[in-house]
Structures are given as C-alpha cells and as structure tokens.
Amino acid sequence: MLLSVEPVRQEYFSCIDSVVATAANYFGRPAALMFLGYMGFSYSPDKKGAYTYADRLSYGVLRYSRYTLEQYYNIMVSWGPPGQYRVLEQVIQRELGYDRPVGTYLDSFYCPWNAAYQKFHIEHFVLIIGQDTDKGHFICLDPYASEDTYFLSVNHLKKGFGKYILFEAQEARDIRACPL
Fold first, then answer.
1. Which of 107, 128, 146 is nearest to 13 (CA)?
2. pLDDT tens for each residue of 41-52
3. How would you classify the pairing of strands 137-141 and 102-106?
4. What is residue 152's three-state secondary structure?
5. Structural contact between residues 19 and 79, judged by C-beta atoms closer than 8 angstroms
6. What are phi and psi of 33, to 5 degrees?
7. Is residue 21 within 8 Å of 13, Cβ to Cβ?
8. 121 near 108, Cβ under 8 Å?
9. What is the mean pLDDT of residues 34-45?
10. Apex CA 156: angle with CA 166 and CA 158, to 5°?
11. Distance between CA 103 and CA 91 in Å, rounded?
C-alpha cells in the first residue's frame, strides 16, 4: 500500500512543520494558514543585560498550531505516545488502510538518509505513506530533507520510533467563514 503524497518543503519549516504541511496538503488543505496567529513578539522592559529597545524584544517561533489545523482546515490532529512498536505498527496499518499518512518521531541515528545516521541522536519527524510487508520496510517522506521517497526498514523504525501524529480530515470548511 502506498499513498500518493506530494511533499511540501519551505526553507523556514522545521521537520515537524514539513510533515504537518505535507499531511495538510495531502488532504487538499494548503499550508498557507497553518501558522496563523502563531507568530508574534513580546517586549520585556526588565530584561537583564538589555540596553536598547531592540534587546528587549523577543520574537515568536514559527511552528504550526494544532488549533489552526482544526479550526481552519478541519483536520483533527492527535498525538500517540511512545510505546510498544507493535502498537505503532498496528496504528500505521490502520491509518494507511483509511488512506491517512502517519507522522512519526524517528531518531536521526536510525534514519539512513539523514547525515546524522549512526552518528548522532537528533529528534526528527518523517511521514509514513506506505508499507511493503513483503520487503519489510515502510515508505516515508522526509520533506524537511528532500522531495524523495525513502525506504525505512522495520528494524530501524523499531529502534528509532517515538511519539506519532495522526491526521483525520473532516469535510473541508470555507475558511472565509472562520473567525480570525
């Protein structure tokens, strides 16, 4: 089984942002509003070591908001806890059966296409879009790294997996009717 998913890459996206934007795009929802309401800044007048107004400004971090995905895109997002591999495998099979990709944490140490492979333990996320049970691997997108499709062995996923992200798209909303 293999879902037809086009990766979404932006230079300012983190790996998880790329996974979420790609999933939203798969469900026909563009990533344009994914960060709505999440950028901003704050001013700290008593910040230690700050001598100018600019030193007292803190800028928001660009990250997707689960609330925004649910409110504007009608995509329900849920996080699954790290646990037993067998549970994750069952979840992946179920979700792929419903034509839904699965985002998953994958320690870069076990991510063969990543420069940190077998060198460093770095938090990373990929999107599982298929499984080839005959060959014993999962088919992944890593839109943070490239637009390529990658094969991830069951053994590597067993060793490197953690929490996972489930996406369930409801009927698309007219975003013009949503409050800003």
1. 146
2. 556 667 777 777
3. unpaired
4. strand
5. no
6. -100, 10
7. yes
8. yes
9. 62
10. 60
11. 11
pTM, 2 dp: 0.82
- Residue 96's contacts (CB-CB under 8 Å, 6 or more residues apart) are 1, 3, 102, 128, 129, 130, 131
The Cα 180–Cα 166 span in angstroms is 25
CB 180 within 8 A of CB 161: no
CB pairs under 8 A, 24+ apart, for 144-147?
A: 144/9, 144/13, 144/14, 144/15, 144/18, 144/19, 145/113, 145/114, 146/7, 146/9, 146/113, 147/7, 147/9
Rounded to whole angstroms, the Cα distance separating 163 from 79 reads 7
Give the pLDDT confidence of 118-156 residue by residue, as tens digits.
Answer: 999 999 999 999 999 899 899 999 999 999 999 999 999
Q: Which residues pair with 152 in a beta bridge?
A: 138
Helix (H) or strand (E) holding 96: helix 85-97
Residue with the two structure tokens 């344009």: 32
Q: Which helix (H) or strand (E) holds 168?
A: strand 161-169
Q: What residues have CB less than 8 Å from 104, skipping those under 6 apart?
A: 88, 92, 125, 126, 127, 128, 157, 161, 162, 163, 164, 165
Q: Give tens-digit pLDDT for 58-107.
A: 655 445 566 777 777 788 888 898 888 999 999 999 999 999 999 999 99
